[in-house]
Design goal:
CATH class of the largest domain: Alpha Beta
CATH architecture of the largest domain: 2-Layer Sandwich
Largest sheet: 4 strands, mixed
CATH topology of the largest domain: GMP Synthetase, Chain A, domain 3
Distance between the termini: 31 Å
Structural class: alpha/beta
Shape: globular
Number of helices: 7
Order of helices and strands: HEHEEHHHEHHEEEE
CATH superfamily of the largest domain: K homology (KH) domain
Length: 223
């Protein structure tokens, strides 16, 4: 029998890396929980800001949170007001959910830095393509038309060699749930050196949730 493995986890320590890394000191459990709170809060807060991923880099005296977004101006705001407001809300969230004292909160406030980086081409990111499809399906656009449009936009990029999109659930409000998928180009999922960007998301519709999976193959990577 086959065993399903997340394409990114399959390639960790080869051509991929973890989203959290750095110096975790003598309290790793509290730091890992803090990472989870930060990532969950930012993902939910910036749902409409086309966020691809949230990276966390820890140093002995600084914690850098790097937000990769296709719409950085929406997050930063005029004169940096937006990012500062998000930073203060994030500190409150960590204080409330990670059982910090006032002294620990003050230390976190001094070392926590937020940085926003622009995603140059959102159509080569599986997460952003996933979000685009979910928004279209939530607006009642036929799923097959949406998938075909997404595949055309993704394959228009030179560095993309192949793409596959799968949707599952009560598609277009049908009574019986099913899975449908479309694929174009090459997609060698068994090859560890293959640079495959994978993203999973859900479209929340009145008739239920629609699961969306996107695979984008960008060629092979050699160390």
């Amino acid at each position: 029998m086959s065993h399903k493995v997340h394409p990114k986890i399959f390639r960790i320590r080869g051509i991929e890396d973890w989203l959290s890394h750095g110096f975790y000191g003598n309290k790793p459990l509290k730091s890992v929980k803090e990472d989870y709170i930060i990532r969950t809060f930012l993902t939910n807060k910036l749902k409409e800001s086309s966020v691809e991923k949230v990276e966390i880099e820890r140093y002995s005296n600084k914690t850098s949170v790097i937000i990769h977004s296709a719409r950085p101006g929406l997050i930063i705001g005029r004169g940096g007001e937006g990012i500062e407001k998000i930073r203060l809300e994030l500190l409150k969230e960590v204080f409330k959910k990670n059982d910090l004292g006032l002294k620990e909160l003050s230390e976190l406030g001094k070392r926590l830095k937020l940085e926003v980086r622009e995603v140059s081409n959102p159509w080569t990111s599986s997460v952003l393509v996933n979000q685009w499809i979910a928004q279209k399906i939530e607006k009642r656009t036929p799923f097959r038309k949406t998938i075909k449009q997404a595949i055309e936009k993704v394959m228009a990029n030179k560095n993309v060699k192949g793409v596959k999109i799968m949707v599952s659930g009560r598609l277009d409000g049908a009574q019986i749930a099913r899975s449908e998928w479309l694929e174009k180009g090459r997609l060698p999922r068994q090859t560890i050196r293959a640079d495959i960007d994978y993203g999973f998301g859900e479209a929340r519709c009145t008739y239920g949730a629609i699961g969306i999976k996107v695979w984008i193959y960008k060629g092979d990577k050699f160390e």
